[in-house]
Amino acid sequence: MTPLGVLLSGRGTNFLALAEAIERGEVPGRIVLVASDRADAPGLERARERSLATAVLPYDEGRDRGEAALEALLSQHGIRHLVLAGFMRVLSPSFVRRHEGEILNLHPALLPSFPGAHGIRDAWEGGVTVTGVTVHLVDEKVDHGPILAQEAVPVLPGDTLESLEDRIHETEHRIYPRTIARWLLEGDFSRKGRDSR
Fold this sequence. Notes:
The chain is α/β, with parallel strands linked by helices. The chain has helices at 13-23, 42-49, 63-77, 93-98, 119-125, 161-186, and strands spanning 2-8, 29-36, 54-56, 81-84, 103-107, 130-137, 147-154. It is globular.
């Protein structure tokens, strides 16, 4: 079973969906570390409830200190596959280069549309009739890199921002574990999909 590290900044619902998929035998990996840039991230408590190792990265001392701590943890736990699950920090180009093909991200919009920290809100305010979810490998640009999976989510008549968010999160919880499983089984995607967008 491939060791996985999960990075999060908030509630950890995508971490939880992944953990439950692993427990059901749907993902050939095991989460060995859950780390956050925020000591108060509810996702860390969810990880502790599952008796998983957790860590708070010292990003308040700067990105270099945060990433140095992360590198040490990856080495300590033998982790080569890193899953971003609502991690609200931008990894440095040098970190990404060292881990090319080994970092997966989930974005709540159909990239390349609406990159950035507020993909759901930006799509809503943009008046689109269809948005969605993207799973992609992380490269040196924000919300860029080879796309491994996308799923559309229609904006329905009568939707509110909150109801749209709920459906996007439901889609995330389904598509992310499935794509992580394929990523682990099929190997190096770092050169694939770059032209698929």
